[in-house]
Write a structure and sequence with these properties.
This protein has 204 residues and is mainly α. It is 73% helix and 0% strand. It contains ten helices and no strands. Helix 7 crosses helix 9. The protein is elongated and about 60 Å long.
Length: 204
């Protein structure tokens, strides 16, 4: 049984690796499951054994590089003895820096942001992706609600959470499009701190 599970995991990994390479080269919409199977030196049946369709495979690819919702919630909420905004700020800086530190993360986010058209075939993956974004925004809004008195006048937790999300997505999109625009390892902290200065009146 162990051998079977190990083989199945190797097959799944080979399919995801092949999909990652082809999606990056050709784009998600222009890559078929049959092409992925051939690139992995497997049959199309092997693809359907592990994934229901291309949307399911694409979702699994994204899950390899982003925090599961449970871990994200834990990291953002398990900070009762710390400044919650510092925890959020550090998480954002870490996410940007990891674009350089983690090559797979860089490749997969390049696919998501620049090689993916959410066609009807990928509607399920699009729905899951939007749900993840909504959850992140909701979590950060709850966190900003806890420190509402520290927000600048006229700025609600809702607006603060959306401003933060826009900053993160903008930096991810710009850097994966052109790595010369800024250095994540050198500039991420300053870029995020600049935003927090605009959101929080006592940010140090």
């Amino acid at each position: 049984m162990r051998r079977t599970k190990e083989d199945a995991e190797k097959t799944r990994h080979a399919l995801l690796a092949a999909a990652e390479q082809l999606f990056l080269e050709r784009g998600v919409a222009h890559t078929s499951l049959e092409q992925i199977a051939r690139a992995a030196q497997l049959t199309r049946g092997a693809v359907y054994w592990h994934f229901q369709n291309k949307a399911d495979l694409f979702h699994a690819l994204l899950e390899q590089v982003r925090l599961p919702p449970e871990q994200l919630t834990e990291r953002l909420c398990a900070c009762l003895d710390l400044d919650p905004l510092t925890t959020l700020r550090d998480l954002c800086v870490e996410a940007i820096e990891n674009l350089v530190r983690d090559e797979q993360k860089r490749r997969i986010f390049t696919i998501l942001l620049h090689r993916c058209e959410f066609t009807d075939e990928l509607r399920e993956a699009e729905t899951r992706h939007h749900a993840f974004i909504a959850q992140f925004i909701d979590l950060t809004e709850q966190l900003f609600e806890r420190v509402r008195v520290r927000l600048r006048p006229g700025l609600s937790p809702r607006l603060a959470s959306r401003a933060l999300h826009a900053q993160i997505i903008g930096l991810f999109t710009d850097w994966t499009r052109d790595p010369d625009l800024f250095d994540p390892l050198q500039d991420a902290a300053a870029l995020i701190d600049a935003l927090f200065h605009g959101l929080v009146h006592d940010w140090q």
